[in-house]
Write a structure and sequence with these properties.
alpha/beta, 9 helices, four-stranded mixed sheet, globular
């Protein structure tokens, strides 16, 4: 068995350990929110058992503001944090000597590696991953789509441009079946890494650009971007009444020059920091 396959097999052979719950859960991990901090553990680990029994760890590491919703992440070690941040549905990612290998789930390159073969080629993108980690993958399009992934959306790289669709949309079905979209719009340089975005309409592109892991965002009829932390009381109140109990406004401060409205400055600042890291 080659070195990469040995790293990937535990991820693929034990999906039963992957189930977790909560707004920041990811397959293979258990998360615990404490204020503005997010504890992250590998499912079934000794460190998790110790934390659950005592509420603390003998040692741990901290990465400020790198988690979903801009939370500070705490874990037994940096590798756990990296693997948690790297995990994305539709991809298999594994940390190897401080670098992250990325494969499409079920793709031919992943099968080749797991069957003991070697990749004929691979690409490297320095400092492109979480915590400025170097990414490695079979090809550029795998890396582009991995970096472009956001919950609720499906992306495809075509001729160096990033097509963006709402998950489950009719436009996505038509596109993936090889059909032509009746119309589409283009936003030059608006995507991750300055990629040009293409979508069926401007609303889809705006929804995609403003979406960030750990936040719920809405663009209202006046073109203002509402930003909430997922799981917050302010978000629950917004769903119940259609408006928050109080809010702040940051004119033109958001993605694409949108004005941000948020329950408080802390939420807005966390959103903008996360956006800056993501882009």
């Amino acid at each position: 068995m080659n070195r990469i396959a040995a790293l990937l097999l535990p991820v693929l052979l034990f999906p039963a350990l992957a189930a977790a719950s909560g707004p920041f859960a990811k397959d293979g991990f258990v998360t615990v929110v404490e204020g503005d901090r997010l504890w992250v553990f590998r499912a079934g680990s000794e460190e998790l058992a110790s934390f659950e029994s005592s509420g603390e760890l003998a040692k741990h590491t901290t990465q400020i503001g790198v988690g979903p919703a801009g939370l500070t992440v705490k874990a037994p070690d940096k590798q756990t944090i990296l693997e948690y941040l790297a995990a994305k549905p539709g991809f298999v990612a594994k940390v190897e000597e401080g670098r992250i290998w990325v494969f499409r789930e079920g793709g031919p390159e992943l099968r080749t590696v797991l069957e003991g073969g070697e990749l004929a080629k691979h690409v490297t993108r320095v400092n492109a991953g979480p915590l400025d980690t170097t990414l490695k993958a079979p090809d550029e399009s795998t890396l582009d789509e991995y970096l472009a992934w956001k919950p609720g959306f499906v992306t495809h790289v075509v001729d160096g441009r990033l097509w963006v669709f709402h998950q489950g949309s009719e436009d996505l079905r038509v596109f993936e079946s090889g059909g032509e979209l009746a119309k589409h719009v283009t936003r030059v340089g608006a995507g991750p890494g300055g990629m040009t975005l293409k979508g069926s309409d401007d609303e889809t592109i705006v929804d995609y650009v403003t979406a960030l892991d750990g936040f719920e965002t809405f663009v209202n009829s006046e073109g203002r971007l509402w930003v909430f932390r997922i799981g917050s009381r302010a978000l629950e109140n917004f769903y119940e009444t259609g408006k928050p109990e109080k809010h702040i406004t940051l004119v033109g401060a958001g993605p694409l020059g949108l004005t941000i409205k948020s329950p408080d400055r802390e939420t807005a600042d966390a959103y903008l920091r996360t956006y800056a890291m993501w882009y």
